[in-house]
């Protein structure tokens, strides 16, 4: 499209010719004629000065360094993401209901819904406008979802789950399965009935093969704007705060509460009933056995302040040499022979 049209759609100031034809977005290192790039950090200025791109999205202070047209942005990365959406809109199947889908009498689908092949939608389900239900999705009875729901293939949503607006659930995720609760009785294990629900607020994204367990009683809560990566597990009665982000394979045990704007690296785990404050950051593969205050940054197992963890991690590779030196000192002092006699 013409650069002036793209600038208008992004609502960004344009410096340069609006008649330039933009063919595609491109990464900085692969920029070519007709492409649009972005630069947000000073370390890329040298590459910007020699770019072959037709246009660059940059902050105002970088505009003079660009040899091409520029779109001036307060957040070039975010605006480049919008460019990607314009040039590569997400796949949306045609509207309507595939003849192989099974929709229970009384289920309600909003205007513009698309339901793919072999979907099953149970009794009493209510889904808002513009839903996209890809093939082989199963939605149990009593589920309620708002506008703009997107369920990719293989998703299972269990009974009485509630979902807000603009929620995306990726392939194979399971929402509302029984929480993991058993009690020893008479030489066996008896399941504790999981009679609660799951409530997911607006603008949440749930990754492929993620699992969110229903509460024992009450509800497991995923707050507005939270983003869960693939293979994330949320245990029963947990609460994930607004705009918190979990990388792949993060696991929360039962009744964990995570605050707002937290970030968890991949494979981090949290013990049951821990209370995690707001804006907490957790290094990948960390184990959290206790509560964390607001703004904590932690790493390791058990998790400690990240500065302490970095010092500990730096020491580990030097431990074999330290042990050799310690043995040598012990031998010189005769401590080893004395220890062996004892």
How would you describe what is shown here?
This protein is of the alpha/beta class and 342 residues long. It has three domains: 3-87, MurE/MurF, N-terminal domain (Udp-n-acetylmuramoylalanyl-d-glutamate--2,6- Diaminopimelate Ligase, Chain: A, domain 1, 3-Layer(aba) Sandwich), CATH 3.40.1390; 96-308, UDP N-Acetylglucosamine Acyltransferase, domain 1, CATH 2.160.10; 313-342, no CATH class. 17% of the residues lie in helices and 27% in strands. It is built from six helices and 38 strands. A hairpin with a 4-residue loop joins strand 37 (297-299) and strand 38 (304-305). The longest helix is centred in the last third of the chain and has 15 residues, at 319-333. The mean pLDDT is 95.
The first-level CATH class name of the largest domain? Mainly Beta
Question: Rounded to an integer, what's the Rg over CA atoms?
Answer: 27 Å
Query: Roughly what fraction of the amino acids lie in strands?
Result: 25-35%
What is the annotated CATH architecture of the largest domain? 3 Solenoid
Largest sheet: 12 strands, mixed
The CATH superfamily of the largest domain bears the name Hexapeptide repeat proteins
* Spatial ordering of strands, largest sheet: 6-9-12-15-18-23-26-29-32-35-37-38
Give the overall silhouette: flat
- Helix % is 10-25%
Name the structural class.
Answer: alpha/beta
In CATH terms, what is the fold-level topology of the largest domain? UDP N-Acetylglucosamine Acyltransferase, domain 1
Averaged pLDDT: 95
Tally of separate domains: 3
* Straight-line N-to-C gap: 85 Å
Counting DSSP E segments of at least 2 residues, the number of strands comes to: 38
Contiguous low-pLDDT stretches (5 residues minimum) are none
Total helical elements: 6
């Amino acid at each position: 499209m013409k650069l002036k049209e793209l600038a208008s759609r992004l609502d960004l100031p344009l410096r340069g010719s609006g008649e330039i034809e933009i063919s595609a977005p491109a990464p900085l290192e692969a920029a070519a004629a007709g492409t649009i790039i972005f630069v947000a950090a000073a370390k890329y200025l040298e590459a910007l000065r020699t770019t072959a791109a037709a246009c660059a999205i940059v902050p105002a202070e970088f505009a003079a360094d660009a040899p091409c047209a520029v779109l001036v942005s307060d957040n070039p990365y975010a605006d480049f993401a919008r460019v990607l959406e314009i040039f590569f809109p997400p796949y949306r199947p045609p509207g309507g209901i595939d003849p192989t889908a099974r929709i229970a009498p009384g289920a309600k689908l909003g205007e513009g819904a698309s339901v793919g092949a072999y979907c099953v939608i149970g009794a009493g389900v209510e889904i808002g406008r513009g839903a996209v239900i890809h093939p082989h999705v199963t939605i149990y009875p009593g589920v309620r979802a708002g506008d703009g729901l997107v369920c990719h293939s293989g998703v299972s949503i269990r009974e009485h789950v509630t979902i807000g607006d603009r929620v995306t659930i990726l392939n194979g995720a399971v929402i509302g399965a029984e929480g993991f609760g058993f009690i020893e009785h008479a030489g066996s294990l008896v399941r504790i009935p999981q009679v609660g629900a799951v409530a997911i607020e607006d603008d949440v994204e749930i990754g492929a093969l993620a699992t969110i367990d229903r509460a024992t009683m009450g509800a497991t809560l995923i707050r507005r704007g939270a983003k869960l990566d693939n293979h994330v597990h949320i245990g029963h009665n947990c609460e994930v705060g607004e705009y918190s982000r979990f990388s792949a394979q993060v696991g929360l045990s039962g009744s964990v509460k995570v605050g707002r704007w937290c970030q968890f690296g991949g494979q981090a785990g949290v013990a049951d009933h821990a209370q995690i404050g707001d804006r907490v950051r957790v290094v990948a593969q960390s184990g959290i056995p206790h509560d964390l205050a607001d703004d904590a940054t932690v790493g390791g197992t058990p998790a400690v302040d990240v500065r302490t963890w970095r010092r500990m991690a730096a020491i580990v590779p030097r431990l074999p040499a330290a042990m050799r030196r310690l043995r040598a000192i012990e031998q010189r002092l005769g401590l080893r022979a004395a220890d062996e006699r004892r």
